[in-house]
Design goal:
The complex is a heterodimer of chains A (338) and B (351).
Chain A: E1 9-19, E2 26-37, E3 42-47, H1 53-60, E4 68-73, E5 76-77, H2 83-90, E6 93-96, H3 100-103, H4 110-120, H5 127-139, H6 156-169, E7 174-178, H7 186-203, E8 206-210, H8 214-220, E9 223-228, E10 231-237, H9 238-243, H10 248-255, H11 296-300, E11 306-307, E12 315-316
Parallel strand pairs in A: 3-8, 3-9, 6-7, 7-8
Antiparallel strand pairs in A: 1-2, 1-4, 4-5, 9-10, 10-12, 11-12
Chain B: E1 9-21, E2 24-36, E3 41-45, H1 52-59, E4 68-78, E5 84-86, H2 92-98, E6 103-106, H3 110-113, H4 120-132, H5 136-149, H6 155-158, H7 168-180, E7 186-190, H8 198-215, E8 218-223, H9 226-232, E9 235-240, E10 243-249, H10 250-255, H11 260-267, H12 302-310, E11 316-319, E12 322-325, H13 326-330, E13 336-339, E14 342-344, H14 347-350
Helix pairs in contact in B: 4-5, 4-7, 5-7
Classes of the chains: A alpha/beta (338), B alpha/beta (351).
Bound molecules: adenosine-5'-triphosphate (2 copies), iron/sulfur cluster and magnesium ion (2 copies).
Chain lengths: 338, 351
């Protein structure tokens, strides 16, 4: 690839606001997010339910209106593209939606759903469509014979595989995956993940990969971004983030990964305090009400995303990111409880 | 939440489901038995397509009408006071009386289960109005409190929003709140936490455990994720191609998995710092239209293949998937006890 170091996708100061029902308030679902995604790499996106992952994924593809900021795909600023240009670009950037049933039309057979993009973008004709559909179904672990079935005849995991086949059929360069394997058992997960990794290796496919499963993010991503209340609070190379997490929220996430072994029922897993509301985010650091290390400055000033002293590519938004907190006494009563 | 303790139970015996398809009649659930006990959680595990959702829908009598039906077995609901109903055969009206109040379900696909034209709060409130006879105001206040118990911030405002304004994980929790609104004695939960991150998941697990010990709620937790069941289940049934292949207490199952399928499943549970996607079980779950004879797992079974190498040729048979034990192809293994609280359906393990 000639332009391997030229990012395929850049998001700059991206924000998405939703109107809050009743009243004049707004909800900042995505707040000032900036990142570059290099070709043939995978950026993992993790964070609490409701923190804005799906909204960011949709904003990147212009599937929700962007309130502020820019998205640049392969050098083209999407906010300035006309409808027809955007439609042509759509083939090159595909998404696997979080809710597979909702993204499949109930009246379309599996074959029509997977072949739809091929027809719309005139990539194949006649029986070549059928062949491509059959190939894609087999690659995701379904059978060519499943073409004639309807979504309601499939199990949850089978539908998720159809959604993946459909996105891959048109040969995209960027694939945004919103919880692509969460409905799949470990065996099918392994199959899909190795398919995705293979496409990256062989065709330079680039991924924005949302998953709440940290073990999966750990195994497929090159870089990881941690989102909290609409903002990136940490971003960096996978190893740096997982082995040397700089933000207290990232640590909580990593520490709460349940052991896949049964234990005598202890009091509870580690849980953190009350969730915060994105329509009235706290002042200062958005995480401070739940942070065990919060000090005065955290309650008043919002920390910027800054490079850590150990690695410039590893950026953390925390006033205490460069302190060694491993021995620090939690200063916040409502924080982490064991 | 509920002052009255439940002692409802559900005894499922030899449950069978038939579905009419283009390829003819198929049986995605073919002789399944288990018990949901008061205050306990039974886990139902297995790969995608093995029949978990069809089993759960059958218990609730929610199979797609006209296409699928319970073709055998019984689903005996009892409330501990001598009242009991066989849900497999009861009249529709009787089933409707129990559903929502006595037994509730969390569906695998939250978006499809929530009604897009009503606010989330109204939908939750409707359940407690209908089943607990609460007034409109009371039911609404309860809806708000349930939303906040499932970890939704700013619940009073959220209750006035529509499902599409909720994130995926919030929809899943809204559905949980709706299922809990009728204070059911039995909760059938189909992949209730698949969309949730670890911290929220832990909170939900704590909430459900609390309800189980306070109110005696019995639960069936359906999932492909054995890691989750390790945290929540008292007992686990492992399902394969429409049948239960192993059943044991959770700790026993993890410490001493006996069925080759269970062993294979456990071997590929992803862990942090032990990469996912490294293996998976070769082959795939057969569709209900093409279940293999004998032990349905034999085409993928490592044990049968290994024994076929070790044992005499006349005990073996060549199949598409290599040489396996003849017995695995010829005999349907029954679920047999192999120890206290441990059952396995494999001729080789049991002998
Ligand atoms: N169409 C919409 N209208 C109004 N608010 C919305 C809309 N879609 C999402 N939101 C809100 O925006 C916030 C972010 O939602 P989003 O779906 O991006 O979260 P998420 O990180 O994907 O969560 P999950 O892990 O649960 O899927 C949430 O508070 C949600 O309620
Ligand atoms: N209405 C239907 N018509 C035809 N086949 C069906 C129907 N519903 C389910 N099936 C088939 O029955 C089998 C079992 O499906 P089920 O939904 O119970 O799987 P599951 O164990 O819940 O899987 P998952 O983990 O993917 O949700 C699958 O092969 C599925 O394709
Ligand atoms: S800035 Fe302060 S409150 Fe925020 S995460 Fe860091 S220590 Fe905690
Ligand atoms: Mg989402
Ligand atoms: Mg299912």
């Amino acid at each position: 690839m000639s332009n391997a170091t030229f990012p395929l996708l850049c998001a700059k100061d991206l924000s998405v606001r939703y109107r809050v029902s009743g009243g004049r308030g707004v909800l900042m679902a995505v707040n000032d997010v900036t990142f570059d995604l290099l070709r043939a790499t995978t950026l993992g996106l993790v964070g609490e339910s409701g923190c804005g992952k799906t909204t960011l994924a949709r904003a990147v593809l212009r599937l929700v209106p962007v309130s502020d900021g820019q998205v640049v795909f392969d050098g083209l600023d999407l906010s300035h593209l006309s409808g027809s240009h955007l439609r042509r670009l759509r083939r090159r950037m595909q998404i696997v939606f979080q809710d597979p049933l909702g993204s499949l039309s109930p009246r379309m057979t599996i074959g029509d759903a997977v072949g739809e993009g091929l027809r719309i973008h005139r990539l194949r004709r006649g029986s070549a469509i059928r062949d491509r559909v059959a190939e894609m179904l087999e690659r995701v672990g379904l059978q060519a014979a499943d073409m004639v079935r309807y979504p309601y005849e499939l199990s949850g995991g089978q539908r998720q595989r159809v959604a993946i086949a459909r996105a891959l059929a048109v040969g995209p360069e960027l694939l945004v995956c919103d919880e692509p394997v969460s409905a799949l058992d470990v065996s099918a997960q392994a199959q899909i993940l190795s398919l995705l990794v293979g496409l990256r290796r062989d065709f330079g496919l680039t991924y924005l990969f949302i998953s709440h499963n940290l073990a999966i993010v750990d195994s497929v991503c090159d870089a990881v971004a941690v989102m909290y209340l609409g903002r990136f609070v940490e971003i960096g190379p996978r190893a740096a983030v997982f082995e040397n997490p700089g933000h207290p929220y990232t640590r909580v996430l990593l520490e709460s990964v349940p052991d896949p072994e049964p234990r005598p029922r202890r009091a509870s897993l580690r849980t953190i305090g009350e969730p915060a509301s994105p329509s009235s985010p706290p002042p200062g650091c958005p995480f401070h009400p739940r942070c065990p290390f919060a000090v005065d400055v955290c309650r008043h000033d919002r920390p910027e995303l800054r490079a850590t002293s150990s690695a410039p590519a590893h950026r953390v938004a925390c006033h205490r990111a460069d302190e060694d907190l491993s021995g620090a006494t939690p200063s916040n009563a409502s924080g982490i409880t064991a | 939440m509920s002052p009255n303790r439940h002692s409802a139970a559900l005894a499922v015996r030899d449950l069978r489901v038939e579905i009419r398809t283009r390829e003819g009649i198929v049986r995605p659930v073919d002789g399944v038995s288990f018990d949901i006990r008061p205050g306990r959680t039974l886990g139902l595990a297995g790969e995608s397509g093995c029949g978990k959702t069809v089993s759960a829908l059958a218990l609730m009598r929610l199979l797609p009408r006209g296409q699928a039906r319970i073709s055998g077995g019984s689903v005996l609901w009892s409330n501990g006071d001598g009242e009991s109903v066989n849900l497999a055969t009861a009249a529709e009206q009787e089933v409707r009386r129990l559903r929502g109040r006595r037994l509730a379900m969390i569906f695998q696909d939250p978006a499809a289960a929530l009604n897009p034209v009503f606010t989330v709060g109204e939908q939750i409130a409707e359940v407690s109005r209908l089943h607990l006879g609460l007034s409109h105001g009371k039911a609404m206040r309860r809806a708000v409190s349930l939303l906040s118990r499932v970890g939704i911030a700013d619940a009073a405002r959220r209750a006035r929003e529509y499902p599409h304004q909720f994130s995926g994980g919030m929809q899943q929790r809204a559905m949980l709140a709706m299922a809990l609104a009728g204070e059911p004695g039995i909760l059938i939960a189909d992949e209730p936490t698949t969309a949730l991150d670890v911290t929220v998941q832990a909170q939900i697990v704590d909430l459900l455990r609390g309800l189980q010990s306070e109110a005696g709620m019995g639960m069936l937790w359906v999932t492909h994720d054995l890691g989750v069941l390790a945290q929540v289940a008292d007992e686990i049934c492992v399902m394969y191609a429409g049948r239960i292949v192993e059943r044991a207490g959770t700790r026993e199952l993890f410490a001493n998995p006996l069925h080759p399928y269970t062993q294979a499943l456990l071997a590929c549970v992803p862990r942090l710092h032990r990469p996912a996607g490294t293996g998976g079980i070769p082959g795939s779950v057969p569709t209900p239209a093409e279940v293999p004879p004998g032990c349905r797992f034999h085409p993928r079974c490592a044990l049968s293949r290994r024994l076929a190498v070790e044992l005499d040729a006349e005990l073996c048979v060549n199949t598409q998937s290599g040489s396996v034990l003849r017995r695995c192809v010829d005999e349907v293994p029954a679920l047999r006890p192999v120890g206290a609280d441990h059952w396995v359906a494999c001729g080789e393990v049991a002998s």
